[in-house]
Amino acid sequence: MNRDTEHQLELLGQMLGSNAPGQEATLRHGNVVQRDAQDPVQGEGTSIVEIRPDTTRELRKGAPEVIFAETKTGEQTIRMAQTLLAGTGRAIISRVPAETMTALQATFAEYETQVREAAHAMVIYQPGYVRKRSGGHVGVISAGTSDVPVADEAALLAEEMGCQVTRIYDVGVAGLHRLIEPLQKLLADGVDVLIVAAGMDGALPSVVAGLVPVPVIGLPTSVGYGIGGGGVAALLSMLQTCAPGLSVVNIDNGVGAGITAGLIANRVAQARKQH
C-alpha cells in the first residue's frame, strides 16, 4: 500500500466517522444544508438535502467530481460550481443546457473557462489554477461524426485528469481504411489506453481491440435507427465481443469512459516514472 492510498483511506475514515449514528446535528458541506429528522422548523421525519458536491473525490478516488447539469436548475448548477471552485479550484460541468450555459458564463465571467460545444460541457477554473500533467496518454476514437459529442465528453474528462489526449474521429467500419494510418500513429506515440465510441452496429471497438496491445474501452452511443436504435445494438454488440481486452461502459457514458481511461493511463504513467 503506497502513501497516497493510506492518505485516501484516512480521509475516508474521517468522513465516515464525522457524525456518529443518531447524532442530532445540522450537517454542512459546502453550500449544502441537511436538517436532522427532529428539526423543529421542518417537523418530524423531514430531511432536506439540496446539493452535496464531493470536493474530496479526486483526492480519494483519483477522479474529479462532475456536475451533471441536464436535470438541474441553473441556480443549483451555479451553487455546485461555486462550492467546487472554493474546494478544489475547478468545476467540471457536463450536459449543460443552453440557458444554463449562458447563466454560467455570466456568473463566472471573471474566471478562466473552457467550453466544449460538441460535448455541451464547461470547465471553470479559479484564477491561477494549474492543470496537472500526469504523463498518461489516452486515445479517443469515434466511428462517426455523430458520435463526437459523447467522445469529446470522454476526452475532456481524461484531459482534466492530467492525460495527454489524442482524438481520431470518423473512422468507422463503413470505411475502415480510414482507421489504419491514425491508429498506427497512436500506437507509435505510446498510447496507454483507447476509448472507442460507436453507435449503429457498434462494431468498431471490437475491430480496434482485436488489433492493439492496450486496453480498449467501448463507448456505445445512442446514434442509429431501426430496431437496435438508441444505442442498444451498439451496447449488446460490444458486450458480445470476441476480441480480448475490450471493456464496455453504458450508452452515452462519456464521463465514465473518460474517467476509467484516465485512471488506467495515470497508473501506467506512474509505473513508467517508478521504473
UniProtKB/TrEMBL annotation:
<dbReference type="GO" id="GO:0016787">
    <property type="term" value="F:hydrolase activity"/>
</dbReference>
<feature type="domain" description="PurE">
    <location>
        <begin position="136"/>
        <end position="274"/>
    </location>
</feature>
<dbReference type="GO" id="GO:0006189">
    <property type="term" value="P:'de novo' IMP biosynthetic process"/>
</dbReference>
<dbReference type="Pfam" id="PF00731">
    <property type="entry name" value="AIRC"/>
</dbReference>
<protein>
    <recommendedName>
        <fullName>PurE domain-containing protein</fullName>
    </recommendedName>
</protein>
<dbReference type="InterPro" id="IPR039476">
    <property type="entry name" value="P2CMN_synthase_LarB"/>
</dbReference>
<dbReference type="InterPro" id="IPR000031">
    <property type="entry name" value="PurE_dom"/>
</dbReference>
